[in-house]
């Protein structure tokens, strides 16, 4: 069909507005990046709007020279890797079992799991439970207590249910058991679902601050986000750099904050474009089937 | 009677149908046989269920302290009952109206501004025909969703800083007065909503993009034949096509009306802005985890959960009556 003039105009306006929105989404990050490599004087006088002015890496030297950052970074990497692995094991086991119609009490267990999406004990009883279990201020607590999430279990179960029964039968005929079915046939076939769920867990771990802040009292165990909160939101930096307002200084509370932000989001920004296609696919599987 | 369990070797579903009602013995024998046959399936299920029982259902036992005078030494079971005293105290306190009002208003802002924005963005993205451009727009608008609340709050704080934050520098250049955004209660809800709009609109639009992709393209061809322009096509084909999705997402939003994202608010508010920023869940956090009033905070949290549950059930009922689409 031929495009009418109205449609052409619509398209131009639509594309223009979308380009504007995409830029608006990106701009704060670009600004932070530029400001982090600019001279503080140019930043605090508003000369930096998009591109860096008075190029310097000194803020990064300060950030990367800070042993606290490295420690917190290491903790975050550990919590993310170990946490995601544990989450995936629990979620895969549960999702596979719940996807099988022959499982006795399947309906009951599914309701038991999904109910937690709607009704939660709340912050305080959860905290007291962890306390009674001795999981306060432990790395194990951080990894285990947040391992599973009903929404992700349902998402993966839906992916498993989409596979034909014949696949399972053929493995069983060859003398395989459920573990063979799961590991050799099912998991390779639901890669988009696995990638989506894994990515969600990993991002949550990387970004999570609230419960780490509450549960971890030992500064050696805190992840990056908790340290960041101390540095940025509680403004620990301001007092250190009060005299940074003259033209010659190459470092200030602002530029160090910006450099820290960049350092903390870098891994996400680097990995994100590659796995994006997976999670869109995975989300759609979850969304269409509910 | 002894022979009643004889035909065990036939297939399971058939057996189930043949079993006379109330014959528990046969039932348990079948159960045992099934569990032995599929034992790996049950082995997989056990750690998973234990996790949910320990970390989701065990805490529910602790909810009782909402009705107790909780003492850490005596434990949950040993503390004395005080009935509805904590809930009464909460409803009677000056904070009740403040946090309840703030929670509802901040949620309504999200419902009236962010929710329609997600649908509009989804429609706009779906109208793009050039795949490359579409991908770029999607990638960039989804990105903020994946950045942590701490970083976003940090960016917001530095942008709005009174002395040399970007926004105030621009205001100054335009010859306007500097504004102390984060310490002025008048601005908090606006800042919070704008931040969420920026952070979540892109990612939340995925669901609607998927729904639009499911609409039959013939409907658009037919509408065009009838002389419908783009705007009319959107009004008469796209929107009705994704109405069930909109309704379901709307109910979910209503259900979470009272659970505003406390993690972000905690990062952005300060005593000066509590007046407009303090919501039920931040109040629970402060009175419970900061002041250590576990029993009172649990009562406040429970009140919140129950109202939220009532809201989602009624929203679902209403929508089923009106549009035939619902969550269950």
Automatic annotation (TrEMBL), chain A:
One annotated Gene Ontology cellular component of this protein: plasma membrane
Bilayer-crossing regions: 12-33, 77-96, 108-128, 140-160, 181-203, 256-275
Localization (cell): Cell membrane
Pfam family membership, one: BPD_transp_1
Keywords on record: Cell membrane, Membrane, Transmembrane, Transmembrane helix, Transport
SUPFAM superfamilies reported in the protein's UniProt record: MetI-like
PROSITE patterns: ABC_TM1
Residue stretches making up the ABC transmembrane type-1 domain: 73-274
InterPro entries xref list: MetI-like, MetI-like_sf
Membrane topology recorded in Swiss-Prot or TrEMBL: Multi-pass membrane protein
A GO biological process held by the record: transmembrane transport
Protein family (similarity comment): Belongs to the binding-protein-dependent transport system permease family.
Annotated PANTHER family: ABC TRANSPORTER PERMEASE PROTEIN MG189-RELATED-RELATED, POLYGALACTURONAN_RHAMNOGALACTURONAN TRANSPORT SYSTEM PERMEASE PROTEIN YTCP
Protein name: Carbohydrate ABC transporter permease
Origin species: Paenibacillus lutimineralis
